[in-house]
Design goal:
heterodimer; A: 691 residues; alpha+beta; Four Helix Bundle (Hemerythrin (Met), subunit A); six-stranded antiparallel β-sheet; four-stranded antiparallel β-sheet; 63% helix; B: 191 residues; alpha/beta; Glutaredoxin; five-stranded mixed β-sheet; two-stranded antiparallel ribbon; 37% helix; 17% strand; elongated
Chain lengths: 691, 191
């Protein structure tokens, strides 16, 4: 019954999306209000229908309906309820349905929130979001159906969405024995939130894309569309950043190689849209303030979405081999065509409007030190990063295989050689651009505002040299560049607050509070910059100063390494509730004779694969990260440990928290005037002056 | 400025009716199409699978003993092509079975060709010596033959009938009974 409910409501959602596209386009052309409203209602309905469908799948997972082949493939009787629920995105079929649900949620939210403010764009926003949704729901229905059931035809078990001729239904109990269970790698807290966040980030970019396409299609190319787009981009960017951070944390905790970012194609596929999206969030300001870069911004918005679809296609089609690539599946070709078609249509539309002179810039670049010039430089660097990473993860492997008949995979070395100079350039720009002014800035003014941040940076570097005894010029240069950007953000906030204190006589907390409420975008942006700074320091520390060693110890023996000592105390062999076998080593970490922590690095042996779970002792200074890599089979008198000391790695996570906080500040709605009043009073000029 | 407007000084070009593309636009569109074509072909290639029917792709194998075998010259015989490697566990399991079946069928119009996939000559020779294999075995230099058959791993075995068509593809280690049964059938019926 659940399979039928899910299948029928998914199908109805597909029909409703198609209906919405047709009626929205007709309504938009004829300016027929009733049709447009009807299209909107159909679009809202897709969300409810997909909610029912997803609900049916969740209920099936929770109640162990192993007749459904999806339930059978991602859970088994030993799976705890919590992971039964998260199994919804445990494999391709379920995750595509979940992805569709989130996309319809975004579409519904955009239609409800922006219905009045962007009325003229709405028919096309409906058409583009629903076209994208229809594509994904179509994949769910025709290629990767999570509602397929097992059937018995003769003695053979087959899986099919509908009843094959002469088939009999097997019982759930019979299938339970053979059920697969959830992929062990996904049984981790980070993996529970990481995919939904990443999906929210990915599907979120459909809204900016739809707004851009709607502006192009309707010809309403005023700066109006870009305001809604900017905010939706921030929302998507927030989730994507969170997804990337959680993914890194998951890799660090579960994959057991001592790091958080491996430059794997799947990771890069998620990082690429982040890069273009970030470039857009900066260059959009130039369009808002100066009416420049209109064509470029269009390309960035659409490029971000195109990168999302490309990444999904490349990682889910089996095109690229990756350590954690998803199973090769049928959806490669449909995804490929969808990606090629949206890229071509949108590029064509932009060129068409441009050709008609409708995307002409209102100002010209006058000064190389003006903020807009520096933002353009920032965009150039972001795009270069994009191209370098795209080439390394997708271009080179594919081209080499096609034209040179050998498979060249550019490893971590390539990325560690190519990307650092570009990141350095980004951090330098992050330090300078906020100090420059729109239109023109003199070198003198700029250098004057740089004095304090530079002095603070110098003090910090001297402090690092004295306390850490490091003279590594590369590291000091990196710390300097990165922390300068952070000091600029802090100092600018400080300057804003002192100005308020001086002119209005406010107290410190009040002045800072007022700064943030009056200009969320600007100061939220500074907080994000601060977060990126903290992440940068963490990355430099943990990459350049990571230490590792491997040693076999007997029980009672001690390993001295990096100022810490590790004692191997004993070994436990246990069976967990969900059936995995846990081989646990007990170790004690101490420093200067003082006991710091008892850790239990372990290996979880699942029927399908072993997993190495690290034990880690975290301080602000470093993580002491221990892996159990081997032991003597019978007595475990001897065990082999791999130890990493990852300095400053926690700054990566803390920087992430700051970044999320800053994005929230910048995204939070500021409008306190009700929509009706706002429309009545043309206060555009004042509102702009404030922003 | 007078009323005379030189063409290059006009700020606002009259809206054009036709859609004329500049060089940059053409480069951009061609670029997108090129990227799409490259990835499309790559995807097509990725999705190619091992041949399970139809004419077997022709190749020439130079054995470790220095003999050359061309598949097209072996028409009229049933050919067993076995892809293996000395580093592959299942290949070691099936090696004795292959040798046994070879000994039984070599005088009945059956040829075996062992193709070592990404292997070193030393490794391959040790493997052959260890399992006393007597049928023709050679290295697949540059994985040319493996690419022709789109193999995805080792061991993989193809059975070619007397007319040079693929009749059977086995993507796992093969057993003595399974291989004998297939050979009996192909020798008798040709399919």
């Amino acid at each position: 019954m659940l399979a039928e409910i899910g299948l029928v409501s998914t199908f109805l959602a597909f029909v409703a999306a198609l209906y919405a596209i047709v009626v929205a386009v007709i309504g938009g052309r004829r300016h027929a209000e009733r049709l447009i409203v009807s299209a909107r209602n159909a679009a809202l309905l897709t969300f409810l229908l997909l909610l029912v469908a997803t609900g049916a799948l969740v209920v099936a997972l929770m109640t162990e309906q192993y007749q459904m082949s999806y339930v059978w493939s991602v859970s088994d009787p030993a799976t705890p309820p919590f992971y039964r629920f998260t199994a919804l995105w445990g494999s391709q079929k379920g995750s595509l349905l979940f992805w569709s649900l989130l996309m319809s949620l975004f579409a519904a939210a955009a239609l409800l929130i922006n219905w009045r403010t962007h009325r003229r764009l709405m028919p096309y926003v409906i058409a583009y979001t629903m076209a994208t949704l229809a594509f994904f729901v179509g994949l769910v229905l025709f290629y990767e159906n999570p509602f397929e059931r097992w059937w018995l035809v003769g003695s053979q078990a087959v899986s099919s969405a509908l009843i094959p001729a002469g088939a009999a239904a097997p019982t759930a109990e019979r299938l339970a024995e053979t059920a697969n269970g959830l992929n062990p790698l996904l049984r981790h807290f980070g993996m529970i939130i990481h995919p939904p966040m990443l999906y929210l980030g990915f599907v979120g970019f459909v809204i900016p894309f739809a707004f851009a396409m709607a502006a192009l299609a309707s010809g309403d190319l005023s700066t109006n569309w870009i305001k809604a787009t900017r905010r939706w981009t921030l929302v998507a960017w927030l989730f994507l950043s969170l997804g990337l951070l959680l993914g890194g944390r998951w890799a660090y905790d579960v994959l057991g190689w001592g790091g958080y970012w491996g430059w794997d194609p799947v990771e890069n596929a998620a990082f690429l849209p982040w890069l273009i999206g970030t470039a857009f969030l900066h260059s959009v300001m130039i369009q808002e303030k100066r009416g420049m870069l209109k064509v470029w911004n269009m390309f960035l918005v659409i490029g971000t979405f195109s990168a999302v679809i490309f990444g999904t296609f490349a990682t889910r089609s089996g095109l690229i081999d990756s350590v954690h690539s998803f199973a090769r599946s049928e959806i490669g070709f449909p995804m490929f065509f969808f990606w090629a078609i949206i890229s071509l249509i949108s590029a064509g539309l932009i060129l068409w409007r441009w050709n008609r002179g409708e995307l002409k810039d209102e100002h010209r670049f006058v000064n190389i030190l003006s903020r807009e010039s520096l933002f353009v430089l920032n965009n150039v660097v972001f795009v270069m990063l994009f191209v370098a990473i795209f080439w390394g993860s997708f271009g080179a492997p594919v081209v080499s295989e096609l034209f040179m008949n050998e498979n060249i995979t550019l490893g971590t070395d390539y990325f560690l050689r190519v990307t650092p100079p570009l990141f350095v350039a980004l951090y330098i720009l992050m330090g300078i651009a906020p100090l420059s002014a729109w239109g023109a800035t003199s070198l003198r003014r700029l250098s004057r505002s740089l004095i304090v941040p530079l002095a603070l940076t110098a003090v910090l570097l001297v402090g690092v040299v004295i306390t850490q005894h490091t003279g590594d010029p590369g590291a000091l240069f990196g710390y300097g560049i990165v922390s300068m950007a952070g000091f600029v953000a802090l100092y600018e906030t400080y300057r804003g607050a002192t100005a308020r204190r001086r002119s209005l006589g406010e107290s410190w907390p009040r002045a800072i509070g007022a700064l943030f409420t009056r200009n969320r975008r600007r100061y939220g942006g500074y907080v994000v910059h601060l977060g990126i700074t903290v992440i940068g320091i963490g990355v430099i520390g943990s990459t350049l100063f990571q230490q590792e060693t491997q040693r076999t110890l007997s029980v009672g023996e001690t390993l001295d390494f990096g100022g810490y000592s590790l004692r191997y105390d004993g070994f436990t062999d246990a069976i967990a509730e969900d059936g995995r076998r846990m081989q646990i080593a007990d170790v004690t970490i101490s420093r200067d004779g003082r006991e710091l922590a008892r850790l239990r690095p372990r290996q979880d042996i699942y029927p399908t694969m072993p997993m190495t779970i690290a034990g880690s002792y975290s301080t602000a200074e470093a993580d002491y990260y221990v892996l159990l890599v081997g032991w003597e089979e019978t007595s475990a008198q001897n065990a082999t440990f791999k130890v990493y000391i990852n300095p400053l790695i926690n700054l990566v996570w803390w920087g992430g928290v700051i970044l999320i906080l800053g994005t929230l500040i910048g995204t939070w709605p500021t409008e306190t005037v009700p929509a009706q009043l706002r429309q009545a009073a043309p206060i555009n000029g004042r509102a702009r002056a404030k922003a | 400025m007078t009323d005379v407007n030189l063409p290059f000084e006009t700020d606002e070009p009259a809206p054009q009716r036709g859609f004329r593309l500049g060089l940059g636009s053409i480069v951009l569109l061609v670029g997108i199409v090129l990227v799409a074509v490259v990835f499309g072909i790559a995807l097509l290639q990725r999705n190619q699978t091992q041949p399970t029917a139809g004419p077997a792709p022709d190749f020439t194998l130079t054995t470790l003993d220095g003999d050359t075998y061309r598949l097209a010259d072996l028409k009229g015989q049933v050919v067993v092509i076995n892809f293996w490697a000395s580093w592959c566990g299942p290949c070691r399991v099936e090696a004795p079975a292959l040798q046994k079946v070879w000994e039984r069928y070599q005088n009945q119009g059956v040829t075996f060709l062992g193709v070592a996939y990404t292997d070193t000559e030393r490794g391959a020779r040790e493997f052959i010596a260890q399992y006393s294999q007597t049928y023709p075995n050679g290295l697949d230099l540059g994985t040319k033959i493996s690419d022709l058959y789109n193999i995805q791993g080792v061991p993989e075995t193809f059975i070619i009938n007397q007319r040079g068509e693929v009749v059977e593809f086995i993507m796992q280690q093969i057993s003595e009974a399974q291989l004998s049964a297939i050979l009996d059938r192909v020798l008798a019926t040709g399919v």
